[in-house]
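tool_call: predict_structure(chain=1)
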Amino acid sequence: MRTVLVASSKGGAGKTTVATNLAAWFALDGKHTALLDADRQHSATRWAEKRAGMDTAVLPIDGTRRGWEGRLPSDIQRLVIDAAAGDMAGELEAVLAKADAVLVPVNPSMIDLEATVPFLNSLAAHPRVKKGKLPVALVGNRLKPWTSASQQAMGQLKAWPYPVVAELRDTQAYVLMVALGKSVFDYRSEQIRGHQDDWAPLLKWLRKVL
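tool_result:
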């Protein structure tokens, strides 16, 4: 089983958007996939429940309860973890120990950028990250590429010591898809294809590190 942790110290950064779409991509790729929902809002769990009738269903696991490892079926090939908002690396120790990669979504605002720095610093101090055994990458989220705010934010992100592996545009499509238990990868329309292209560098990075 390979595990991807999606984490951020800032609420509203887009953890659930990244986690649910990523889980769907694994499932559509033919992998038995589970989604560990450690966020008390349980948005990821509701998404997975709506997807339950599909051939590419994703198994939701309640990560707010102890002993979740024992509820994880042995045939799971991919586990995506939607971490609790606000947790620093020390509070994520249990899931960091199991993670094979960490994705950190960041919104293009000074508040989000400043809130993310302490979290990344706490990650940098983690022994596996420090030794280069746990890869960490950034995901620019809710971007409006035509605005100077998004351009400046991406410039700052790319100056940080972790790779930026995706630049996801701001769109209501993600909100609508989550409400339906769907993902950007479940559609074939020309309009959605552009959003799928936004994910291509992230998926390429995951193929390399997992």
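agent: The first strand starts at residue 2 and ends at 6. Proceeding to next step.
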